[in-house]
Protein: Histidine--tRNA ligase
Organism: candidate division WS2 bacterium ADurb.Bin280
Amino acid sequence: MIQRPRGTVDFIDEQFKQKQDLERRFSDFFYKKNYIGIETPLFESKDLFVRTVGDQTDIVQKELFELEQKSDTKYALRPEITASIIRALAESGSLKTKPKPINVFSYGPCFRYEKPQKGRRRQFNQLDLESIGRSDASSDEEFIVNVVEFIELISPKKILLSISTFGSEERKAEYAKDLTKYFADKKDSLCELCQKRIDKNPFRVLDCKNPDCKTICQDAPEISLNQEERERFQNTVSNIEQRISPKGQTSIKIDKTMVRGLDYYTGIVFEFSLVDDETRSGSIGGGGRYDNLVGELSSINLPAIGVGLGVERIIDAIE
Ligand SMILES: [Zn+2]
């Protein structure tokens, strides 16, 4: 008998209903917040993901689900939705014509050619939100509070919001230099892959699962923000806290070690997990501010913030 490919699931009856219900509540919630819906192809030019997600990331180097065909154009199944959304909004002229911020939601399958294991599938479903055109701190706050409110609506469990920041693009670049310098002295003790990463993308070393790399990372320098960036971050976190704390379902943790697996973040970054008395789920999703991606894919430079939530991860965590 032919079986389903490794790392995939079938949604039958109850599971189908559960998934559809989640997607419906997601659309309903964000329609009410005046978000517009968007659906893009499941595959794109491979180049779109190489340029946006980053050619040094695991997603592009190891996990991209490439399609083989007779023409010269290289295609890949999308590993996430953000790049496709920006590509679509640029191509349709919406980035120019629509009033800002452009708030969009999308959902559907994404693909990563990973070693299948619990919580890591080769085809998985994402709920995705992007808010394009504003860069002020209150837009960070507004966006994150909306996401928290949605997760509170669908989760019977408590929610942990982990949050950090790259400060700004300049600070991120400085931090990258600090890390490169720190790792350069210890190069021989790093794994082979990380030795290649330290010049081009030292952030990926911080994500490495190799025990030797992990040990070295324990003493790696932290990002040092300037006063303005520090204040912006502290104010944003305390404003979010004030708005969400009355319900008591969500708590916030500042996690400076958090480095998201995508290259394009330039400011605030965040991640959600669900908790009950004894256990804490793995991440159910996360996102952050990316102020350069739109400019890289189009002629207009617009700041943006986005989030992706894993449908299967939410369903697993809720049960
Ligand atoms: Zn390593």
Notes: Residues 14-166+225-318 form a domain with the BirA Bifunctional Protein; domain 2 fold (CATH 3.30.930.10). The longest strand covers residues 102-111. The chain is about 40% helix and 20% strand.
